[in-house]
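Project standup — Tuesday

K.O.: blocked on the structure for the chain from last sprint. Re-posting the sequence here as requested.
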Amino acid sequence: MENSFPAKKLPWASRIGIFSLTFVSLAGVAAAERELRRSAELPLPALPIAFEKAAEARALSFVAARPVAEVSLKRGQTLSDALVGLGLDNAAAQVASQAALRYVDPRSLQPGDRFLAFGASGSERATIEVALNGRGQLRLDRKGESWSSSWRPCERSVRVRTLDGVLSGSLEGSIRTAGGNPMLAYRMSDVLQWDLDFNRDLQPGDRFSVLYEDVTLDGVPTGPGAVLALRYSAGSRKLEAYRFGAADYYDAEGRPLRKMFLKSPLPYSRVTSRFSTQRFHPILKKVVPHWGIDLGAPIGTPVRATASGVVLSAGWDGGGGKAIKIRHPSGYITGYLHLSRFAPEVHAGARVGQGDVIGFVGQTGLATGPHLDYRVQLRGSWLDPMSLKAVEAPVIAQKELPDFKAWRDSLRASLTGSAALPTAPSRGKGLLPARREAPDVVAAAARR
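H.V.: unblocked you, prediction finished:
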Protein backbone atom coordinates (compact mmCIF):
# COMPACT_ATOMS: atom_id res chain seq x y z
CA MET A 1 0.00 0.00 0.00
CA GLU A 2 1.31 3.46 -0.94
CA ASN A 3 2.57 5.58 1.96
CA SER A 4 0.32 8.57 2.52
CA PHE A 5 3.33 10.59 3.73
CA PRO A 6 6.08 10.06 1.07
CA ALA A 7 9.65 10.86 2.28
CA LYS A 8 11.38 13.79 0.66
CA LYS A 9 14.79 13.17 -0.87
CA LEU A 10 17.64 15.24 0.66
CA PRO A 11 20.15 16.96 -1.63
CA TRP A 12 23.69 15.49 -1.83
CA ALA A 13 25.28 18.35 0.15
CA SER A 14 22.98 17.78 3.13
CA ARG A 15 23.72 14.06 3.14
CA ILE A 16 27.49 14.65 3.23
CA GLY A 17 27.06 17.09 6.18
CA ILE A 18 25.13 14.58 8.27
CA PHE A 19 27.71 11.82 7.68
CA SER A 20 30.54 14.20 8.64
CA LEU A 21 28.77 15.24 11.88
CA THR A 22 28.18 11.59 12.84
CA PHE A 23 31.87 10.73 12.29
CA VAL A 24 33.05 13.67 14.44
CA SER A 25 30.63 12.68 17.28
CA LEU A 26 31.87 9.09 17.32
CA ALA A 27 35.47 10.27 17.39
CA GLY A 28 34.66 12.50 20.38
CA VAL A 29 33.06 9.62 22.30
CA ALA A 30 36.14 7.45 21.69
CA ALA A 31 38.45 10.19 22.94
CA ALA A 32 36.36 10.71 26.10
CA GLU A 33 36.41 6.97 26.85
CA ARG A 34 40.24 6.89 26.54
CA GLU A 35 40.48 9.84 29.00
CA LEU A 36 38.20 8.11 31.53
CA ARG A 37 40.26 4.93 31.41
CA ARG A 38 43.50 6.89 31.89
CA SER A 39 42.02 8.79 34.87
CA ALA A 40 40.84 5.56 36.49
CA GLU A 41 44.40 4.22 36.47
CA LEU A 42 45.74 7.28 38.32
CA PRO A 43 45.87 7.17 42.19
CA LEU A 44 43.10 8.99 44.06
CA PRO A 45 44.08 12.24 45.77
CA ALA A 46 44.99 11.82 49.43
CA LEU A 47 42.22 12.39 52.01
CA PRO A 48 42.81 14.74 54.97
CA ILE A 49 44.63 12.91 57.80
CA ALA A 50 41.93 13.79 60.36
CA PHE A 51 39.24 12.27 58.14
CA GLU A 52 41.22 9.04 57.73
CA LYS A 53 41.74 8.69 61.50
CA ALA A 54 38.04 9.27 62.21
CA ALA A 55 37.02 6.67 59.64
CA GLU A 56 39.49 4.15 61.08
CA ALA A 57 38.26 4.72 64.66
CA ARG A 58 34.66 4.27 63.57
CA ALA A 59 35.49 1.02 61.81
CA LEU A 60 37.35 -0.31 64.86
CA SER A 61 34.48 0.63 67.19
CA PHE A 62 32.06 -1.21 64.92
CA VAL A 63 34.21 -4.34 64.96
CA ALA A 64 34.64 -4.16 68.76
CA ALA A 65 30.88 -3.81 69.21
CA ARG A 66 30.22 -7.12 67.51
CA PRO A 67 30.05 -10.05 69.97
CA VAL A 68 32.50 -12.87 69.41
CA ALA A 69 30.33 -15.33 71.37
CA GLU A 70 26.71 -15.47 72.51
CA VAL A 71 24.67 -17.86 74.65
CA SER A 72 21.17 -17.83 76.15
CA LEU A 73 20.65 -19.17 79.65
CA LYS A 74 18.87 -22.53 79.65
CA ARG A 75 16.68 -24.02 82.33
CA GLY A 76 18.82 -25.44 85.14
CA GLN A 77 21.98 -23.52 84.17
CA THR A 78 23.86 -21.24 86.55
CA LEU A 79 25.63 -17.95 85.94
CA SER A 80 28.98 -19.76 85.86
CA ASP A 81 27.64 -22.27 83.32
CA ALA A 82 26.73 -19.43 80.95
CA LEU A 83 30.12 -17.76 81.37
CA VAL A 84 31.91 -21.02 80.61
CA GLY A 85 29.71 -21.32 77.53
CA LEU A 86 31.12 -17.97 76.36
CA GLY A 87 34.66 -19.35 76.48
CA LEU A 88 35.85 -18.55 80.01
CA ASP A 89 37.69 -21.23 81.95
CA ASN A 90 36.19 -22.38 85.25
CA ALA A 91 38.47 -20.19 87.38
CA ALA A 92 37.72 -17.01 85.39
CA ALA A 93 34.00 -17.84 85.40
CA GLN A 94 34.03 -18.06 89.21
CA VAL A 95 35.83 -14.70 89.57
CA ALA A 96 33.44 -13.01 87.10
CA SER A 97 30.44 -14.51 88.93
CA GLN A 98 31.66 -13.03 92.21
CA ALA A 99 31.92 -9.60 90.56
CA ALA A 100 28.35 -9.95 89.24
CA LEU A 101 26.98 -10.50 92.77
CA ARG A 102 27.27 -6.77 93.42
CA TYR A 103 24.26 -6.15 91.18
CA VAL A 104 22.60 -9.48 90.36
CA ASP A 105 21.24 -12.27 92.53
CA PRO A 106 22.03 -15.46 90.58
CA ARG A 107 18.67 -16.88 91.69
CA SER A 108 16.93 -14.10 89.76
CA LEU A 109 18.36 -15.26 86.41
CA GLN A 110 15.74 -16.61 84.04
CA PRO A 111 15.85 -18.94 81.03
CA GLY A 112 16.36 -16.82 77.93
CA ASP A 113 18.63 -14.20 79.54
CA ARG A 114 21.31 -13.40 76.90
CA PHE A 115 25.06 -13.42 77.52
CA LEU A 116 27.34 -11.65 74.98
CA ALA A 117 31.15 -11.73 74.95
CA PHE A 118 33.23 -9.00 73.28
CA GLY A 119 36.90 -8.75 72.35
CA ALA A 120 39.32 -9.66 69.59
CA SER A 121 38.55 -12.98 67.96
CA GLY A 122 40.73 -15.78 69.29
CA SER A 123 41.86 -13.88 72.39
CA GLU A 124 40.60 -13.77 75.97
CA ARG A 125 37.14 -12.29 76.50
CA ALA A 126 37.52 -8.62 77.43
CA THR A 127 33.92 -7.69 78.16
CA ILE A 128 30.73 -9.64 78.87
CA GLU A 129 27.26 -8.14 78.78
CA VAL A 130 24.24 -9.89 80.28
CA ALA A 131 20.79 -8.75 79.11
CA LEU A 132 18.28 -9.58 81.85
CA ASN A 133 14.81 -9.62 80.37
CA GLY A 134 12.86 -6.57 81.48
CA ARG A 135 15.28 -5.71 84.28
CA GLY A 136 18.48 -4.24 82.90
CA GLN A 137 21.96 -4.96 81.60
CA LEU A 138 24.96 -6.23 83.57
CA ARG A 139 28.46 -5.49 82.21
CA LEU A 140 31.58 -7.40 83.27
CA ASP A 141 35.02 -6.04 82.30
CA ARG A 142 38.25 -8.02 82.60
CA LYS A 143 41.18 -6.27 84.29
CA GLY A 144 44.07 -8.70 84.25
CA GLU A 145 43.01 -11.63 86.39
CA SER A 146 40.15 -9.74 88.03
CA TRP A 147 36.73 -8.56 86.84
CA SER A 148 34.72 -5.42 87.55
CA SER A 149 30.95 -5.04 87.14
CA SER A 150 28.51 -2.25 86.31
CA TRP A 151 24.72 -2.10 85.96
CA ARG A 152 22.30 -0.22 83.71
CA PRO A 153 18.64 -0.68 84.66
CA CYS A 154 15.97 -0.69 81.98
CA GLU A 155 14.29 2.67 81.52
CA ARG A 156 10.72 2.01 82.58
CA SER A 157 7.93 4.31 81.50
CA VAL A 158 4.26 4.00 82.35
CA ARG A 159 1.12 5.47 80.84
CA VAL A 160 -2.24 4.96 82.50
CA ARG A 161 -5.06 3.93 80.17
CA THR A 162 -8.68 2.88 80.43
CA LEU A 163 -10.52 0.21 78.49
CA ASP A 164 -14.26 -0.49 78.26
CA GLY A 165 -15.68 -3.68 76.80
CA VAL A 166 -18.53 -6.16 76.54
CA LEU A 167 -17.96 -9.89 76.92
CA SER A 168 -18.55 -11.80 73.70
CA GLY A 169 -16.81 -15.16 73.60
CA SER A 170 -13.61 -15.33 75.64
CA LEU A 171 -12.42 -12.50 77.87
CA GLU A 172 -9.12 -12.30 75.94
CA GLY A 173 -10.97 -11.97 72.64
CA SER A 174 -13.35 -9.36 74.05
CA ILE A 175 -10.42 -7.26 75.27
CA ARG A 176 -8.76 -7.54 71.86
CA THR A 177 -12.00 -6.43 70.19
CA ALA A 178 -12.13 -3.41 72.51
CA GLY A 179 -8.61 -2.44 71.42
CA GLY A 180 -6.61 -3.78 74.37
CA ASN A 181 -3.84 -6.30 74.94
CA PRO A 182 -5.32 -9.79 75.58
CA MET A 183 -2.84 -10.24 78.45
CA LEU A 184 -5.00 -7.76 80.37
CA ALA A 185 -7.44 -10.66 80.93
CA TYR A 186 -4.91 -12.34 83.23
CA ARG A 187 -4.33 -9.12 85.16
CA MET A 188 -8.09 -8.81 85.66
CA SER A 189 -8.41 -12.41 86.81
CA ASP A 190 -5.63 -11.84 89.37
CA VAL A 191 -7.62 -8.95 90.86
CA LEU A 192 -11.02 -10.69 90.99
CA GLN A 193 -9.83 -14.26 91.59
CA TRP A 194 -11.41 -14.38 95.07
CA ASP A 195 -14.88 -13.27 93.97
CA LEU A 196 -15.25 -14.34 90.35
CA ASP A 197 -14.68 -17.84 88.99
CA PHE A 198 -13.39 -17.20 85.49
CA ASN A 199 -14.21 -20.82 84.58
CA ARG A 200 -17.98 -20.61 85.07
CA ASP A 201 -19.14 -17.12 86.15
CA LEU A 202 -18.49 -15.18 82.93
CA GLN A 203 -21.51 -14.74 80.65
CA PRO A 204 -21.99 -13.06 77.24
CA GLY A 205 -23.09 -9.47 77.69
CA ASP A 206 -21.07 -8.88 80.87
CA ARG A 207 -19.55 -5.39 80.91
CA PHE A 208 -16.15 -4.33 82.22
CA SER A 209 -14.12 -1.15 82.62
CA VAL A 210 -10.48 -1.22 83.67
CA LEU A 211 -7.90 1.45 84.51
CA TYR A 212 -4.41 0.00 84.11
CA GLU A 213 -0.73 0.74 83.55
CA ASP A 214 0.67 0.39 80.02
CA VAL A 215 4.40 -0.32 80.48
CA THR A 216 7.40 0.10 78.16
CA LEU A 217 11.00 -0.87 78.89
CA ASP A 218 13.72 0.94 76.94
CA GLY A 219 11.02 2.07 74.54
CA VAL A 220 9.74 -1.46 73.89
CA PRO A 221 6.09 -2.18 74.87
CA THR A 222 5.89 -4.99 77.42
CA GLY A 223 2.12 -5.13 77.83
CA PRO A 224 -0.23 -4.23 80.68
CA GLY A 225 1.15 -3.69 84.15
CA ALA A 226 -0.83 -3.29 87.35
CA VAL A 227 -4.59 -2.85 87.32
CA LEU A 228 -5.46 0.31 89.24
CA ALA A 229 -9.26 0.16 89.19
CA LEU A 230 -11.75 -2.33 87.78
CA ARG A 231 -15.51 -2.66 87.37
CA TYR A 232 -17.18 -5.87 86.25
CA SER A 233 -20.94 -6.27 85.80
CA ALA A 234 -22.16 -9.88 85.61
CA GLY A 235 -25.94 -9.73 85.37
CA SER A 236 -27.23 -8.17 88.57
CA ARG A 237 -23.87 -8.63 90.24
CA LYS A 238 -21.60 -5.56 90.28
CA LEU A 239 -17.96 -5.92 91.30
CA GLU A 240 -15.57 -3.04 91.96
CA ALA A 241 -11.85 -3.20 92.78
CA TYR A 242 -9.43 -0.41 93.70
CA ARG A 243 -5.73 -0.74 94.30
CA PHE A 244 -4.67 0.87 97.58
CA GLY A 245 -1.25 0.26 99.07
CA ALA A 246 1.66 -1.66 97.57
CA ALA A 247 -0.39 -4.38 95.88
CA ASP A 248 -3.70 -4.73 97.75
CA TYR A 249 -7.19 -4.45 96.28
CA TYR A 250 -10.39 -3.40 98.03
CA ASP A 251 -14.04 -3.08 97.11
CA ALA A 252 -15.93 0.22 97.16
CA GLU A 253 -16.45 0.05 100.94
CA GLY A 254 -12.81 -0.66 101.75
CA ARG A 255 -13.24 -4.40 102.31
CA PRO A 256 -10.28 -6.45 101.05
CA LEU A 257 -10.79 -8.60 97.97
CA ARG A 258 -8.22 -11.09 99.20
CA LYS A 259 -9.91 -14.04 100.89
CA MET A 260 -8.60 -17.15 102.62
CA PHE A 261 -9.41 -19.27 99.54
CA LEU A 262 -9.20 -18.56 95.85
CA LYS A 263 -12.33 -19.37 93.87
CA SER A 264 -10.40 -21.89 91.76
CA PRO A 265 -6.92 -23.44 91.60
CA LEU A 266 -6.93 -22.91 87.81
CA PRO A 267 -7.33 -19.42 86.31
CA TYR A 268 -9.06 -20.79 83.20
CA SER A 269 -10.71 -24.21 82.85
CA ARG A 270 -14.13 -25.85 82.71
CA VAL A 271 -15.98 -27.92 85.32
CA THR A 272 -16.35 -31.43 83.90
CA SER A 273 -17.71 -33.15 87.04
CA ARG A 274 -19.24 -31.72 90.21
CA PHE A 275 -19.16 -32.68 93.87
CA SER A 276 -21.53 -35.60 94.49
CA THR A 277 -22.19 -38.37 97.00
CA GLN A 278 -23.29 -40.65 94.16
CA ARG A 279 -21.50 -40.53 90.82
CA PHE A 280 -21.05 -43.30 88.27
CA HIS A 281 -17.30 -43.75 87.91
CA PRO A 282 -16.37 -44.04 84.20
CA ILE A 283 -13.46 -46.42 84.87
CA LEU A 284 -14.62 -48.42 87.90
CA LYS A 285 -18.10 -48.72 86.32
CA LYS A 286 -19.92 -48.30 89.61
CA VAL A 287 -21.53 -45.56 91.70
CA VAL A 288 -19.13 -44.01 94.21
CA PRO A 289 -18.89 -40.61 95.99
CA HIS A 290 -16.96 -37.88 94.22
CA TRP A 291 -15.57 -35.70 96.98
CA GLY A 292 -14.34 -32.88 94.73
CA ILE A 293 -14.83 -31.11 91.42
CA ASP A 294 -13.08 -31.98 88.18
CA LEU A 295 -11.62 -29.08 86.20
CA GLY A 296 -10.74 -29.93 82.62
CA ALA A 297 -7.53 -28.31 81.30
CA PRO A 298 -4.61 -29.24 79.02
CA ILE A 299 -1.73 -31.28 80.45
CA GLY A 300 0.89 -28.94 81.89
CA THR A 301 -1.52 -26.18 82.98
CA PRO A 302 -0.15 -24.65 86.24
CA VAL A 303 -2.10 -25.51 89.40
CA ARG A 304 -2.19 -22.91 92.21
CA ALA A 305 -2.56 -23.40 95.94
CA THR A 306 -5.94 -21.89 96.82
CA ALA A 307 -4.74 -20.89 100.29
CA SER A 308 -1.49 -20.57 102.22
CA GLY A 309 -0.42 -23.59 104.23
CA VAL A 310 1.99 -26.48 104.74
CA VAL A 311 2.28 -29.43 102.35
CA LEU A 312 1.16 -32.63 104.06
CA SER A 313 2.12 -34.93 101.18
CA ALA A 314 3.25 -34.81 97.56
CA GLY A 315 3.40 -38.22 95.89
CA TRP A 316 1.43 -41.11 94.47
CA ASP A 317 -2.09 -41.49 95.89
CA GLY A 318 -3.53 -44.63 94.28
CA GLY A 319 -6.42 -43.78 91.98
CA GLY A 320 -5.67 -40.10 92.50
CA GLY A 321 -2.32 -40.50 90.75
CA LYS A 322 0.24 -37.84 91.56
CA ALA A 323 -1.42 -35.74 94.26
CA ILE A 324 -0.69 -32.94 96.74
CA LYS A 325 -2.41 -32.32 100.08
CA ILE A 326 -2.01 -29.01 101.93
CA ARG A 327 -2.96 -28.19 105.53
CA HIS A 328 -4.37 -24.69 106.12
CA PRO A 329 -5.36 -22.71 109.23
CA SER A 330 -8.66 -23.43 111.03
CA GLY A 331 -8.64 -27.16 110.18
CA TYR A 332 -8.91 -26.96 106.38
CA ILE A 333 -7.12 -29.38 104.00
CA THR A 334 -7.10 -29.08 100.21
CA GLY A 335 -6.24 -31.84 97.73
CA TYR A 336 -5.01 -31.64 94.11
CA LEU A 337 -5.19 -34.97 92.22
CA HIS A 338 -4.14 -36.47 88.84
CA LEU A 339 -1.14 -34.12 88.42
CA SER A 340 1.48 -34.70 85.75
CA ARG A 341 4.31 -33.42 87.95
CA PHE A 342 5.05 -31.31 91.02
CA ALA A 343 6.57 -27.85 91.10
CA PRO A 344 10.18 -27.64 92.33
CA GLU A 345 10.64 -27.59 96.12
CA VAL A 346 7.07 -28.84 96.73
CA HIS A 347 7.40 -31.68 99.25
CA ALA A 348 6.03 -32.74 102.62
CA GLY A 349 6.71 -29.98 105.14
CA ALA A 350 7.21 -27.20 102.58
CA ARG A 351 5.34 -23.94 103.10
CA VAL A 352 3.33 -22.54 100.18
CA GLY A 353 1.57 -19.22 99.71
CA GLN A 354 -1.82 -18.55 98.22
CA GLY A 355 -1.54 -18.50 94.44
CA ASP A 356 1.82 -20.32 94.36
CA VAL A 357 2.17 -22.84 91.53
CA ILE A 358 2.43 -26.24 93.23
CA GLY A 359 2.02 -28.62 90.28
CA PHE A 360 0.72 -29.13 86.77
CA VAL A 361 -2.43 -30.70 85.34
CA GLY A 362 -2.06 -34.29 84.22
CA GLN A 363 -3.88 -37.58 83.68
CA THR A 364 -2.26 -39.85 86.26
CA GLY A 365 -4.16 -42.48 88.25
CA LEU A 366 -7.77 -43.36 87.37
CA ALA A 367 -8.47 -40.63 84.82
CA THR A 368 -10.09 -40.73 81.39
CA GLY A 369 -8.63 -37.39 80.29
CA PRO A 370 -6.43 -34.53 81.48
CA HIS A 371 -8.02 -32.70 84.41
CA LEU A 372 -7.56 -31.61 88.02
CA ASP A 373 -9.62 -33.16 90.83
CA TYR A 374 -9.78 -30.40 93.47
CA ARG A 375 -10.99 -31.30 96.98
CA VAL A 376 -11.56 -29.47 100.28
CA GLN A 377 -11.91 -30.98 103.75
CA LEU A 378 -12.78 -29.30 107.06
CA ARG A 379 -11.96 -31.21 110.24
CA GLY A 380 -12.43 -34.56 108.50
CA SER A 381 -15.63 -33.71 106.57
CA TRP A 382 -15.65 -33.16 102.80
CA LEU A 383 -16.94 -29.83 101.48
CA ASP A 384 -18.13 -28.87 98.02
CA PRO A 385 -15.36 -26.50 96.83
CA MET A 386 -17.89 -24.51 94.79
CA SER A 387 -19.94 -23.69 97.90
CA LEU A 388 -16.95 -22.79 100.07
CA LYS A 389 -17.63 -19.56 101.96
CA ALA A 390 -14.90 -16.98 101.71
CA VAL A 391 -13.06 -15.82 104.82
CA GLU A 392 -11.93 -12.21 104.34
CA ALA A 393 -8.62 -10.67 105.29
CA PRO A 394 -8.59 -7.73 107.75
CA VAL A 395 -10.28 -4.55 106.54
CA ILE A 396 -8.65 -1.12 106.19
CA ALA A 397 -8.08 0.58 109.55
CA GLN A 398 -10.63 3.24 110.45
CA LYS A 399 -8.05 6.03 110.43
CA GLU A 400 -7.12 5.13 106.82
CA LEU A 401 -10.68 4.99 105.47
CA PRO A 402 -10.92 8.73 104.61
CA ASP A 403 -7.76 8.48 102.48
CA PHE A 404 -9.06 5.34 100.80
CA LYS A 405 -12.46 6.83 99.98
CA ALA A 406 -10.92 10.00 98.52
CA TRP A 407 -8.60 7.86 96.40
CA ARG A 408 -11.49 5.59 95.35
CA ASP A 409 -13.56 8.58 94.20
CA SER A 410 -10.64 9.90 92.16
CA LEU A 411 -10.14 6.52 90.50
CA ARG A 412 -13.85 6.26 89.74
CA ALA A 413 -13.72 9.58 87.93
CA SER A 414 -10.65 8.46 85.97
CA LEU A 415 -12.31 5.16 85.13
CA THR A 416 -15.25 6.94 83.50
CA GLY A 417 -12.98 9.42 81.74
CA SER A 418 -14.47 12.44 83.52
CA ALA A 419 -11.17 13.35 85.22
CA ALA A 420 -7.45 12.83 84.84
CA LEU A 421 -5.59 10.45 87.14
CA PRO A 422 -5.05 12.17 90.50
CA THR A 423 -1.95 12.36 92.66
CA ALA A 424 -1.50 9.52 95.12
CA PRO A 425 -2.26 10.18 98.81
CA SER A 426 0.65 11.96 100.52
CA ARG A 427 1.22 9.29 103.16
CA GLY A 428 2.27 6.83 100.44
CA LYS A 429 -0.58 4.36 100.75
CA GLY A 430 -1.77 5.06 97.22
CA LEU A 431 -1.11 2.94 94.20
CA LEU A 432 1.35 5.01 92.17
CA PRO A 433 5.12 4.57 92.66
CA ALA A 434 6.84 7.43 94.45
CA ARG A 435 9.85 7.47 92.11
CA ARG A 436 9.49 9.27 88.78
CA GLU A 437 12.03 9.00 85.97
CA ALA A 438 10.42 11.96 84.20
CA PRO A 439 7.37 14.21 84.69
CA ASP A 440 5.40 12.21 82.12
CA VAL A 441 6.26 8.76 83.46
CA VAL A 442 2.68 8.50 84.64
CA ALA A 443 0.48 10.47 82.27
CA ALA A 444 -3.15 11.39 82.53
CA ALA A 445 -5.56 8.58 81.76
CA ALA A 446 -6.05 8.19 78.02
CA ARG A 447 -9.18 6.58 76.65
CA ARG A 448 -8.39 3.81 74.20
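K.O.: great, moving the ticket to review. The mean pLDDT is 77. The two ends are 75 Å apart (CA to CA).
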